[in-house]
Structures
1.
Amino acid sequence: MPVLIPETRNSHQQRRATRRQGQGETGGVTGDMETFPLGRHRVRRIGFGAMQLPGPGVLGPPRDRDEALKVVRRAVELGVDHIDTAQFYGPNVANELLAEALYPYPAELVLVSKVGAARDGHGGWISAQRPAQLRAGVLENLATLRADQLAAVNLRRLDAGHRDPGVSFDEQLDAMISIRDEGLIGGIGLSNVTLEEFEHAVGRTEVVCVQNSFNLLDRAAQPVLSACRQRGIAFVPYFPIGSAFGGQSALLGHPAVAQTAGRLAATPVQVALAWLLALAPNILLIPGTSSLAHLEENLAAGSVTLDAKALAALDAATG
Ligand SMILES: NC(=O)c1ccc[n+]([C@@H]2O[C@H](COP(=O)([O-])OP(=O)(O)OC[C@H]3O[C@@H](n4cnc5c(N)ncnc54)[C@H](OP(=O)(O)O)[C@@H]3O)[C@@H](O)[C@H]2O)c1
């Protein structure tokens, strides 16, 4: 029976990073942006999430295939060096678009994917959490991306109510460790984890990134973010601007966001992203979009400086 899992909405400064100047011949908008390590790689703080590339419901071909390819190429042209994807976006669609647009990949591009889910014949999200399924998921990602290795792959845990009682977290970690030790992935990431699960995993092996839902109005993962920060591990919030699943309007229409945007001559999305960038140096952004105009707007959030008044108003914002 298909289990609805949450790639749909789930239950939910110190400037230590260094600057990397002027990469890319086009002098893209991310050219002088701060960076933070993601495993063995150091990436710019605004990357790109590929979940919006497939059609509606993250299913099937894009509404506008040419635009989708342009978005991906433009992202890299503008300096994006970190792209988040998944074989189950489409399925296959996001990965195949990335490969078509970018293969052979630029040496500095860090591709990150995730395993733990699949799609049923109707596009429903189903669990694929068992060790053999995690391995199969990594292999499918490599094949559809035409890659020999991925910089990191996130073990995407299901929400507590949907977990498969037949598979333990330790078994999953064992599988991810052997996949990494075989060289199929450069690093292990975790997604949708509790603080206890995070601490347990880092006690067992190196973890290079954590992806949990997090934004101005959804701060449940703050303890995990803080723990990652303490350990120098990248925290990559998903749904940074509220997602495509209905949370976006609450975030972008929030009075603190709207008023700050008006006062600073920025857009609400840029304010939401700039707030995350200012919150902690280990936050790496992967806003998702299928639109060239939105891509450029999102990358330009790196130039938006939130003053003390803005930070106070946004920090006090609640859902
Ligand atoms: N680990 C996980 O479980 C997990 C779960 C979900 C997502 N992710 C990753 O996280 C990434 C980000 O999450 P997300 O894409 O779901 O949500 P998001 O980035 O919070 O929001 C995406 C939504 O915002 C819209 N949008 C983007 N830029 C905009 C702009 N400048 N102005 C107005 N609207 C804008 C997009 O529509 P347009 O296409 O029209 O721009 C889309 O509807 C994903 O792409 C995926 O790579 C991971």
2.
Amino acid sequence: MEYVVIGHGTAGQTASAVLKKVDPDSRVYVIEKGRYVSNHPCSLPMVLGGRLELKALEESALKGRVNLILGAKADYIDLERKVVRYEKDGSKDELPYDRLVLATGLKPTFPRVEGLDLEGVGTVWDIESVAKLLKILGNKVVVVGGSATGIEVASELSKTGREVVLIEALEQLMPGKLDLPISSLVARELTEMGVKVMLKTRLEGLEGEGGKLRRVKTNSGTIEADTAVIVTGAKPNSDLALKSGLKIGETGAVWVDDYMFTSDPNVLAAGDVAEVRDFVTGERVTTGLASTALVQGRIAAENAAGMRVKYRGALSPYIVPVGDYWFGGVGISASKADSLGIEYLSFRFAGSDLPKYMPGRDRSVIWLITDTEGRILGAQVFGRRDVRGRILFITAAIYAGFKVQDIRVMEFAYQPELCDVLDPVVVASEGMSRKYRLLL
Ligand SMILES: Cc1cc2nc3c(=O)[nH]c(=O)nc-3n(C[C@H](O)[C@H](O)[C@H](O)COP(=O)(O)OP(=O)(O)OC[C@H]3O[C@@H](n4cnc5c(N)ncnc54)[C@H](O)[C@@H]3O)c2cc1C
């Protein structure tokens, strides 16, 4: 078999490596428009905080046995002839395939305002954008967009001693993803670090002098700044799929079935460019996470090679650092349930992350969302210790269909330096079971 993978990001790297594993005699070609074998976008904010060199992210040695064509942009998939047309160094070429995996990711979007071309304006997207930002980074920074990336970038830049303002157009950080009990803690932590968080503040323009940024204009007033980092979102990079005649879903991403096949029987799609089903709601969604892209890339490759592995749907677990804390979530938020008209119960528990006698203990906050019978639909967690562990457990609990009544009597590993004997997830489940009389 001859496989072509388009895009060597998280989904494409996984797909190409898995193809070689499950079909070792095959030939696997990857067409990647970038110059790097890998560029690890999730670690870019740490570079801004000075905790990691940008060079550490520039991977250029290929580990697997795939044929990677770098600096090559796929510009058409001829579905009839089963060939991909691509352009490299100004010349055009073609590659035939038996099966193709499309993994072209997202592309960043920017607000339509004046001044985006001023010196001092940048974004955090890939190695090139961060290299540019590092050169222009001043001391008065406005981060535009209260997304996970915006929060992480604001936190990292603030740790370097810069004056940082984070502006978000809506009334809370990460609207739709986070609910107020957790987003308010994130905003408070940023504020305590010295970041000025301005909610309900929309970017209206960027003003400069002599080609350099001087002011950021918003509906809440003008902010003096020498740097603006615009992280206002991204959309599926599905132009190639559209142009080639593949079905585009309602989100603008490439429609795939539960086996990652697109509307063409020889083309699969995975990662941020694919529109999949949400595990909890069944809605058509895009995901925007490396961990999710990896699972989809694996399943797409296995099915391209003739296996029949079902994608169970996206739960999209995530975790983000903010100051000395972490927050994360999985499944749906209460605001998402509201917007979809789903009946739900919610519960907030705030407790200690270590036994009362332990020095250095801190708060641990759990926010649970269940259906009316107590089955978990989503959760958000804030704290200093083991936030990821709790998100991992709740992710598995949602997949397994656990109710809070089940979790309140489950056994969790305990050691006083790491946690309290009653894990906050257990205490939250117990509290929720009692509050809503879900016990029996
Ligand atoms: C700053 C930042 C921080 C992040 N932090 C996290 C995190 O902490 N945790 C997490 O889970 N996720 C995080 N993400 C998201 C995560 O990086 C993405 O969800 C993940 O990389 C998606 O993988 P993908 O393979 O679908 O797309 P990508 O990794 O974007 O790969 C797509 C690839 O396709 C190539 N390509 C596109 N079009 C063409 C074409 N026509 N021809 C050839 N090649 C093409 C691109 O050059 C790119 O290399 C972060 C993203 C950013 C930007």
3.
Amino acid sequence: MTLPYSTSTKNNIQPFESIPGLSSLPILGPIHHFIPGIGSVGLRANFCDLSKVLYEKYGSIVKLDGVFARASMVILYEPEHFDQVYRSEDTLPSRPGFETLLYYRTKLRKSVSNGIYGLTVAEGTQWRDFRTKVNQALLKLKLVKLYAPALEEIAGDMVARLKRLQENDNYLDQHFDLEITKWSLESVAVVGLGTRLGCLDDGLTEDHPARILIKCSQDILELSWKLEFFPSLWKYYPTRNFKKMMNTLDLQWDASVKFIKEAKIKINERGHDILEEDKSVIERLLAIDDNVAIMMANEMLFAGIDTVGYATTCLLYNLAMNQNVQDKLRDDIYLSEQNSRYLRACLKESLRLFAVLPANLRRTTKDHVVGGYHIPKGIDVIAPNEFLSKMEKHYYRANEFLPERWLVEKSDPLYYGNCHPMVTLPFGFGIRSCVGRRIAELEIEIFIKRLLRDVKVTWQGPPVKVVTKVFNSFKKPYCFKFKPVS
Ligand code: HEM
């Protein structure tokens, strides 16, 4: 390999190959290290644990060779290091992932996608064109004014539902995740489509399109985990899981298009004679073009379900485990419905300790020199944010749930600003960061306010265990109890 720098030896730049990390076997790469009981790393339940093991073994720059058709990865544990790479990659950031979805949209169902590949999988100028169009519709709108009343109604329905389900023996222990995703889908649909889907109705059957969307979103994550984080054999022949994934993507597309078409009919019936600032997300998107509207609404109905569901579950868990914080938050809500400062601090703190995505990722589009090593073009640079966010080195009393750290003055050792700003990135980084952030925050804030007003949340069980399958999730059972506030 030739380094791009003629002065490399003089400047003491080490080649990429010399970065410490897991050794590789021909063809199989480092996969043998993960075999339970035999491998040096073994199977880890979640990415945070894996990050810790690799950090303790190899230090702050760790390489994992690519396997089959997958790119090599490097995990950077110093925020200054990935800050350097992410910033200089931020003109047209590349974030690979969901490669089977990419295949589905660009090859298998190319005619259906109409050359529009959405935000989650598009790259390069195609991503930028799409993002520029939807940014305006999603980020520049008066969310609270437009959607707070509908989201409050949904939150009220959900709280009533939880109270009812609580009476049903241990139903919630095994099905809390399903119930919270019914609420998150109902909420994101009211924002994305301007309509209620009926997810919170008692009679929601397995073949209802809303139920299909929830199931598909979970299956897509589960299958992506199997197909993309383990050797990518599907690139050589259509494996059973690959075929299952293509069927699931068909089902998800059909169910979402059904809802989008219904929303479009309703808008046309109502007419377009309303103020620009009162236009809903779907109206703004339809004004751009039908294909963009369909793809963006489809992505919202996928990306807005499990993410918001998990973030809300974690916040409830933290509030249940820290009754003093829950009481303070409830008092705050009673005092002023409008002021959400403490609630926002609770959400930030919860996302610090329990990230939805345990790490961030950028694929290099050029060469970099980081910490004395050469990182060539085409390498996946991982920022292990969840692991870093729990390190005492970065946060004072790092493993405690202390929302105050987001509110105290600079002089306080707890002050969040004492930590490098790249350590905690729950919504990602820069121009490619989460487009649904404000929507997610609004949904969660409204629901928590509504719930805590008359419900006390406790967790009656051992501390939760987190499992990573692309996103993080809780290992069942859920031990929440919801009781009226005395
Ligand atoms: C608490 C809830 C959520 C969390 C923690 C979250 C987190 C993230 C993260 C970490 C990324 C990657 C950003 C990057 O690479 O820099 C992302 C991207 C994205 N998210 Fe979210 N998200 C949430 C909710 C939502 C919602 C409600 C929607 C839809 C309305 C959404 C739609 C998207 C889309 C479309 C992308 C791809 C953006 C792009 O590549 O341009 N997310 N999200």
